[in-house]
Acryloyl-CoA reductase (Maritimibacter harenae), 330 residues
Amino acid sequence: MFKALLLTQNDDGVASAAITELSEDDLPSGGDVTVAVEYSTVNYKDGLCLSPKGGGLVRHYPHVAGIDFAGTVEASDDDRYKPGDKVVLTGWRVGEAHWGGYAQKARVKADWLVPLPEGLTTKQAMAVGTAGFTAMLAVMALEDHGLAPGHGEVLVTGAAGGVGSVATAILANLGYSVAGVTGRPETADYLRDLGAARIVPRVELNETVKRPLESETWAGCVDAVGGEMLARVLGQMKYGASVAAVGLAGGAALPATVVPFLLRGVNLLGIDSVMQPYENRLRAWERVARDLPMEKLESMVQPATLSDLPKLGADILNGQVKGRVVVDVN
Ligand code: NDP
């Protein structure tokens, strides 16, 4: 028997969560590796999956949410993994379409796992989680499109959130001058400690685009917010610079013009963490282990347990979680 935060639906289609004892027979079929989960985390998408309607992501109840987990292989029908191996899972719609990490056991496809990156513990891997992994993918995409330290300030939107905090710490460690946009002025010291050189109040950037081009300000941008903020930022990018579009915490619409693309050669780079091919996952995790200072990661983390998750899920959707959450499922 093991513990899980089980989501069940009532007759009105409203889901609620309760810590429940399950047996291995309750785990959905189709997986080939059973993992003793040690840690999980809370990403924005977890907030959606935990919400009363499952955020449009959860297809079937009862359901175990948790889009990320790290732990130890207990049993494996796949040659790539054997009992005792430490593994990490992010993406592949685990926690949405498949049962996820908010349980002491998970059974998943071997294809979805990566070996725990060298130099990281399972706890640190979950402090990174999908949010941090995606921040790394965004930085890699900006570099692949020519960004290098010394080109100018790099903007991070939603800076005090999960993606934003990790992006800030990685970029600062790589020698970039980071400007962090936040709607929470009280996080300014936290962001400076992560390495932000400048704090940009959210109000300066969340107004509708009035002029398609503003002064050329940013050499790159990791954008976790989308919406009007992304539209504004596009018009403020330097000639030939790139924005990595990661998130939609501020909205999915993009009320922009194409002018920054046409007159300034600005690039809008889409970042997806869910379906990333295996080789690129390994590359990104290696970069995380190398480029994210572990003491900075530590300073972002708040610990949690399974029983804290319903509240944390609501908090993250309200933009109230600072940095990253590590959930000890045991
Ligand atoms: P968080 O909630 O931790 O961070 C989002 C941050 O955005 C908040 O902390 C807040 O930062 C800011 N924010 C929130 N609401 C608004 C608003 N209305 N207007 C402007 N800023 C706002 O979430 P995550 O870091 O986990 O995820 C961030 C986004 O990235 C989400 O949309 C998520 O779905 C997406 N994502 C996408 C992935 C992909 O594969 N493409 C993978 C991971 C995440 P502050 O208080 O500093 O202003």
